[in-house]
TrEMBL record:
It comes from the Bacteria. PROSITE patterns: XYLOSE_ISOMERASE (PS51415). Keywords: Carbohydrate metabolism, Cytoplasm, Isomerase, Magnesium, Metal-binding, Xylose metabolism. Mg(2+) 1 binds at residues 231, 267, 295, 338. It catalyses: alpha-D-xylose = alpha-D-xylulofuranose. The keyword Metal-binding applies. The keyword Iron does not apply. This is Xylose isomerase. GO terms for biological process: D-xylose metabolic process. InterPro entries: Xyl_isomerase-like_sf, Xylose_isom_bac, Xylose_isomerase.
Amino acid sequence: MAYFPEVSKIVYEGPDSKNPLAFRHYNADEVVEGKTMREHFRFAAAYWHTMRGMGGDPFGPGCAIRPWEDGSDSVAMALTRVKVFFEFMEKLGTPYYCFHDRDVAPEGSTLAESNANLDQVVKALKGEQERTGIKLLWGTANLFSNKRFVHGAATSPNADVFAYSAAQVKKAMEVTLELGGENYVFWGGREGYMSLYNTDLKREVDHLAKFFHLAVDYKKKIGFTGTFLIEPKPKEPTTHQYDFDSANSIAFLKSNGLGNEFKLNIETNHATLAGHTMMHELAYCAMHGMLGSIDANRGDLLLGWDTDQFPTDLYLTAQTMLVVLAQGGIGAGGFNFDAKVRRESFDPIDLFHAHVGAMDAFAQGLKIAAAIRKDGLLTDMIKQRYASWDTGIGAQIEAGQVGFAELEQYMLAKGEITPNSSGRLEMIENIINRYIR
């Protein structure tokens, strides 16, 4: 049975194509800077938004039309969704997917029942992976939807919730290993506080670190060699989340002896909610060697919540690819579309339009970033701007050869500072605009 009979396999037709269901820029086999586009992006479809998102928002329920849904959350319905999802990915051409445990299988009345339900669906997922060659980029556990997580999971004031969370993550890690997942993600959906009046801040943060250490221990025990990823988010639903942004998360990991065990999965919408640009968050991770994967989406800057829209902004995708190319690629991570069609786009075919546009936008961003790097204008300007550090007193400072006393003597002898050159900000923006087309 075909669930998208009106859609053929999406193919590359080139920049002049007017076909809305064809790639104009994403050519999976095209080589850019020594890698194919397929290798650069490792695109992944997100199970939760693609298969479970119904278009709801804070002001009303969803209105998505999904003909395959029977209105239940049964195992039988979950198995049908697996078939729908893999048909979608086959026709779209994404080589990877990712999921939360509760996206793919219904939660039971007990942990044992939930695990049994998950096992049934994992068997189907494994069969579809073998049939299609599509792989699992990462798995994760939903430790935020059930009311047991009302006060958090690993940071809950209830020790039983910590124990339940550990058991659920244990199972999700085992399933990820069974499906050949290349990463495992921790998203602390409710790991934070609403008010400090009733919060033992140090105890909760210590418990979170303990949880991650236990996960690392179990990872080694079962032989999972994939990358552990943390996905920062500043707020929503809590007032403050403990993985606020890249800087906060990296400081937490390093101060708790976890810096060598984790990398970060960075999301655009979370970056902007934290008051940062996506480029900043990526660059901060990259300079620490901890940029592991990317949630490829965007938010609406006029709205104050996590809208998870599909990325179509070429400035965003070009900036993203400048950072990724500079660090030599995304490694074992990928570009996961943690993005949903908006409430007004309710037909099944809109899922294809959204993903095609996003994949094309990143392909354009890749080509733009590669062109900028090839011309070397930015590299040359940065080198010139910091030239005073390459010789003389600058080189001595960086080498640790002088202290305050020597620097004082240097300035007393020099007398005054030579004015810095202009930052040329407007010129740089104009240069970037040359490549956006």
